[in-house]
Amino acid sequence: MKLEDIRREYTQQGLDRDQLDANPFRQFDLWLQQAIDANMTADPTAMSLATVDADGQPSQRVVLLKHADEQGFVFYTNLESRKARDIAGNDRVCLHFPWTPLERQVVIYGRAEKLSVAEATRYFISRPRNSQIAAWTSHQSRSIGSRKLLEQAFEQMKHKFRDGDIPLPSFWGGYRVVPFKMEFWQGRGSRLHDRFMYSRDNDQWSLDRLQP
């Protein structure tokens, strides 16, 4: 089959303005919970994070949402990674939740701000021990000669931290994406999809329907 022949209709449901909460965070919480309850994927909290480097080159990667409230959307990472370097130069980022089995997408436009050490520490100590060790092991985004070298480094870190608690690495932490726009997309038949954009003006949110 040719790629251009692969298509399907979006027929599950539509989306009207009166179905949307005036508060985009409450609307997001509702859709996220529905994605979790639908058991549609092993990672309903997976989101694509887009950043732009100093040369204007965009890049994307999947990270996991670890907290969401009216302050923003939180994820954790190596603070020396490519994404962290991009954010240091340009804090404007974009998040994308592709809940395709529900024929839904949420796109969040915002600014990424670094979490405090206290916030990062609280989350770090809640992680499984091997995940804590992996944070110490990986120099994220840097070249390595083989997987064997990575596994050896992991075993060395396991030995180093064989006794007691594992401290937070100085190069590991988190970011909160504070949104100024949030788009909710619902698939609709004949490609006449429903799109609604929340836009923030100071502490007030307005809501507009967008053409598909």
TrEMBL record:
Its cofactor is FMN. InterPro entries: Pyridox_Oxase (IPR000659), Pyridox_Oxase_CS (IPR019740), Pyridox_Oxase_N (IPR011576), Pyridoxamine_oxidase_dimer_C (IPR019576), Split_barrel_FMN-bd (IPR012349). FMN binds at residues 61-66, 76-77, 82-83, 105, 140-141, 185, 195. It catalyses: pyridoxine 5'-phosphate + O2 = pyridoxal 5'-phosphate + H2O2; pyridoxamine 5'-phosphate + O2 + H2O = pyridoxal 5'-phosphate + H2O2 + NH4(+). Residues 42-159 form the Pyridoxamine 5'-phosphate oxidase N-terminal domain. The keyword Acyltransferase does not apply. It holds the Pfam family PNP_phzG_C. Pathway: Cofactor metabolism; pyridoxal 5'-phosphate salvage; pyridoxal 5'-phosphate from pyridoxine 5'-phosphate: step 1/1; Cofactor metabolism; pyridoxal 5'-phosphate salvage; pyridoxal 5'-phosphate from pyridoxamine 5'-phosphate: step 1/1. Coiled coil: none annotated. Keywords: Flavoprotein, FMN, Oxidoreductase, Pyridoxine biosynthesis. One of its GO terms (biological process) is pyridoxine biosynthetic process. Its EC number is 1.4.3.5. GO terms for molecular function: FMN binding; pyridoxamine phosphate oxidase activity. Belongs to the pyridoxamine 5'-phosphate oxidase family. This is Pyridoxine/pyridoxamine 5'-phosphate oxidase. It comes from Reinekea blandensis MED297. The gene is pdxH.
